Amino acid sequence: MAEVARLFPAIEAVEEEQAADALRESMRIAEAMLFAATAPLEEAEIARRMPEGIDLGAVLDGLRGFYAGRGVNLVRVGRKWLFRTAPDLGWLLSRDLTEPKKLSRAALETLAIIAYHQPVTRAEIEEIRGVAISKGTLDVLLETGWVRLRGRRKAPGRPITYGTNEAFLLHFGLESIGDLPGLEELKQAGMFEGRLPQGFAVPTPNDDVALTEDEDPLDDEAIESFGPGGAEVEAETAAGPSAEAEGEASEPVAELEEGEGETGKGEA
User: Fold this and answer.
1) 147: left (phi over 0), alpha (psi -120 to 50) or beta
2) For labelling alongside 181, which of 110, 131, 174, 266 has CA 20 to 30 A away?
3) Mean pLDDT for the chain?
């Protein structure tokens, strides 16, 4: 009996060693997949290549920890994973390029409103900003690839609703839309000055791809009409105050510096 009892620790040690070997092999598989990928990989795609019974979360967390202090880091964007140059080494790989024109303040404010208030319509954006959007603002944001058409609001006129996508998260280095700064963080960054109205709050952003109860899916005609220049069509038919003369219709696709996605406007 004593001999049988002594066997249990030995069996447990073997099982633990086998589990550790399986985890190491799974990390190697995931590492190879991520290095070979030309775009961020979905968790589901990585999971399909894992041995049966492996905890994918443990595999990716272990791999992320392994690369935490190295020249490249494993980062998560939404439910996708990719390798990215360590932030403190980015300057080594920078090239002298002509700096693209940055988005106007109006476009930045519009982007911040969409990020925090999505799904949001053009009229709702104008109500928050207190001024109409010029014809090219939404065009420019759609061209950047950071803003997408979500659906149609179940309201008179069935206006288009807008939201952000994974390209927005990728550009600003966010794991999820919930990583956008809240009210206290915006205060500390100096985005708000003076006393704020009682009850003022920054909304909790949500970029869930599923339509909300007050949204209908887009039809093919709507998608075609809101392709390049589509936002201008909506701008011309939308009721509201005169649009700002911001000259954004001809503005090239701009590139924001990280951290500019949030505006100092109190309404966002």
Assistant:
1) beta
2) 131
3) 78
Q: Is residue 104's pLDDT more than 70?
A: yes
Show me where the domains of the chain are located.
8-93, 105-237
The dotted CATH code for 8-93 is 1.10.10.10
If phi over 0 gives left and psi between -120 and 50 gives alpha, with beta otherwise, what is residue 243?
A: beta
Q: How many CA atoms lie within 13 A of 96 on its CB side?
A: 0
- Residue 215: closest CA among 164, 158, 153: 153
Query: What fold is seen in the domain 105-237?
Result: Arc Repressor Mutant, subunit A (1.10.10)
> Which tokens hold the place of 51?
């041995």
Confidence (pTM): 0.61
**Cα distance between residue 258 and residue 224, in whole Å:** 31
Q: Which helix (H) or strand (E) holds 162?
A: strand 160-164
Instruction: Supply the DSSP symbol for 161.
Output: E
